[in-house]
Amino acid sequence: MMRSQLQKGSRGVVRVALLAAVAGGIVAARSGAERRSAERALAPATAASGSTTFSRAVTSPPVTGQQIYQRCATCHQATGLGLPGSFPPLAGSEWATAPNAAVPIRIVLHGLQGLITVKNQRFSSAMPAYGTGQPLSDADVAAVLTYVRSTWGNSASAVTGNEVARERAATASRTTMWTAADLTPLLKGNNR
User: Are 96 and 156 within 8 A, CB to CB?
Assistant: First the structure.
């Protein structure tokens, strides 16, 4: 709209356009922190318009681990069987189902590169860092890992957002992807 039309037009139309633009940011926001930031930005607009329920109406429903896993399925496949010779399986993987959940958490947060043996098969590829390079919230990482650890016959324990937060803090200074050699002590039961 041109400025003169805005001045002549209803203030309600301007408020609705502003609310819709800000609401788009809330719907698009993936993490809780992003959503709260967008809601704080929305607060003055909702106060000016008299709306008190708008932010609750546009908050998107929680994303499930299965939905987040769609990012992983290109390489690891929807079946969790991976691509032989290229990308390791997650179904029955000793790495994905490690008793120490720090192993898969660290892999998702910082990625993995180089040689790795999964179910007695060797793979040499790279997995991107989804916790830093393509940020996932602690809750998202926990959800996708819980899905992986309890699907395709896997029966490992659930992962919590608190566990992810703890590992994210413990490895915050890491700037490179993990290797199997880095994580083997954790896989064998050592805590750190």
Answer: yes
DSSP string, the chain: --HHHHHHS-HHHHHHHHHHHHHHHHHH--SHHHHHHHHHHHHHHHHHHT-SSHHHHHPPPPPPHHHHTHHHHHHH-TTS--BTTTB---TT-TTTT-SSTHHHHHHHHH-EEEEEEETTEEEEEEE--TTTTS---HHHHHHHHHHHHTSTT--PPP--HHHHHHHHHHTTT--S-B-HHHHHHHHTT---
- The whole-model pTM stands at 0.68
Q: Are 17 and 45 in contact (CB under 8 A)?
A: no
Domain ranges of the chain: 3-58, 65-187
CATH topology of domain 65-187: Cytochrome Bc1 Complex; Chain D, domain 2 (1.10.760)
pLDDT, tens digit, 9 for 90 and up, residues 60-116: 677 899 999 999 999 999 999 999 999 999 999 999 999 999 999 999 999 999 999
